[in-house]
Amino acid sequence: MKVLLVGGGGREHALARMIAASPLVDALYAAPGNPGIRRHARLLPLGGDDHGALLAAARREGVDFAVVGPEVPLVAGLADRLNEAGITTLGPGARAAAIEGSKAFAKDLMARHGIPTARFATFREPAAARAYARELGAPVVVKTDGLAAGKGSLVCATLAEADDAIAACLERGVFGLSGATIVIEEFLRGEEASFFALANGPDVIPLASAQDHKTVFDGDRGPNTGGMGAFSPFAPLDAAMQARVMREIVRPTIAALAAEAAPYRGILYAGLMLTADGPKVIEFNCRWGDPECEPILARAGSDLVPLFLAAARGEPMAPPPAWRPEASVCVVLVSGGYPGSYRTGIPIEGVGAAEAEPGVSVLHAGTAERDGQLVTNGGRVLAVTSVGADLESAIRRAYAGVARIKFEGMHYRSDIGRRRAR
Fold first, then answer.
1. Residue 149: is its pLDDT beyond 90?
2. Which end of the chain offers a freer environment for a tag, N or C, measured as fewer CB atoms within 10 Å?
């Protein structure tokens, strides 16, 4: 096959490496890709929002199969456009992708179908929102309805913080149209986990688990980011808990979408809180998480492309995927100032030395090449990923790789996976 991969971050670098290695794949194109993805694919200088140009390029190159990585083009209907043009595509159509594109849609779907989640209500008017925050009591969570690059979930320790978050969304317009509607929900307590499944429309199979580290500083402090690191597998999501999550959350969600004329074909991410009352949904994403994708695919023990293709075609997904028993860790290196303002174009050194460390690979997220020099080109710059016999070993290897890389202002968390490894 000829395959088109849409996206240019660390998640897409992990996918590109895996897809290019498949015996089913003759040629891989990536749009727009990045310098790391260039090792595995021919890059097309097209963004995921340019649906017409992507479709024209796919036709020109004779693409048979497309994999859409990021959420924005999926929510905007890119998978619909490609499928309508006869290009089999892994990724939900716009109606199903609304499970991530609209928090209000997702919460209402869960409420209608009895899928366990936090108590919530949806608002467009500040006074009513503040009244409901007081009904729930602090801490409380304020979420933008629309996409906000992983930064639209505001955990408020006090009602004053909740008032400010509501004002930021509904009065100051900090998040633009994404924050014109908000969801306010109760704060769930427990262990947070990421669980991934693959759906073909009517059916769904489990994939793997991970735990993400969202806040920018050690000890889960500071503002939320798109993700500062992750590890896989996540031990509390053992076989019994995965079976429960599939039974109580994932299968009912796929069935609910199908019943509401939004059949889901693609990766489903369930962000979970493992509470004393059982697993509850924090949020759904309509694609691989980033950075969870990087450590999960590092543990892939079999070619996943046949499964991806079957899901996209709506065919039976067999045999189930195999996963290596080792642990994997991903540490994200970010630009100074992220998730706020940051500089780009800063030279990066030591990537080759990091990859020379045993069990380490360096996945490009926000990089570019200028005059032959690798430079920063985003907030999240590199994802240093390792595989080890156990979590402690994987952590040591990942940070050995991190120590080899340098760029001005480089920041990373030093505690990825460490609490679970103790």
1. no
2. C
Assigned token pair, 23:
């015996």
- Cβ 338 vs Cβ 52: under 8 Å: no
Q: Beta strands 229-232 and 221-224: pairing type?
A: unpaired
Written as six digits, the tokens of 158 are 């006090």
370 within a domain of the structure (yes/no):
yes
CATH number at residue 15: 3.40.50.20
* DSSP string for 93-131: -HHHHHHHH-HHHHHHHHHHHT--B--EEEESSHHHHHH
Nearest alpha-carbon partner for 116 in 268, 289, 272, 286: 272
Contact 377, 395 (CB under 8 A): no
- For residue 412, tell me if it sits in a domain: yes
CB 130 within 8 A of CB 163: yes
Q: Are residues 205 and 294 in the same domain?
A: yes
What value does the mean pLDDT take over residues 119-136?
Answer: 97
Shared domain check, 177 and 214? no
Ramachandran area for residue 48 (φ above 0: left; ψ -120 to 50: alpha; else beta): alpha
Same domain, 124 and 168: yes
Task: Region of 130 please: left (phi>0), alpha (psi -120 to 50) or beta.
Answer: alpha
Angle (nearest 5°) at CA 403 between 391 and 193: 35
Query: Is the same domain home to 335 and 274?
Result: no
Q: Same domain for 282 and 396?
A: no
Asked whether residue 360 carries a pLDDT value surpassing 80, the answer given is yes
- At residue 59, does pLDDT exceed 90? yes
Q: Which of 36, 30, 34 is nearest to 2 (CA)?
A: 30
> Which residues are 157's β-sheet partners?
none
Q: Cα–Cα distance between 165 and 128 in angstroms, integer?
A: 14
For residues 181 and 127, membership in a common domain is answered with yes
386-397: pLDDT as tens digits: 999 999 999 999
Q: Is residue 98 part of a domain?
A: no
Q: Which domain holds residue 234?
A: 191-313
E strand intervals along 190-290: 191-201, 204-212, 215-217, 221-224, 229-232, 264-275, 278-285
Residues 202 and 308 in one domain: yes
What whole-number distance in Å separates Cα of residue 55 and Cα of residue 45? 13
Element (H, E) at 182: strand 182-186
Contacts of 401 (CB under 8 A, 6+ apart): 331, 354, 355, 357, 360, 362, 384, 386
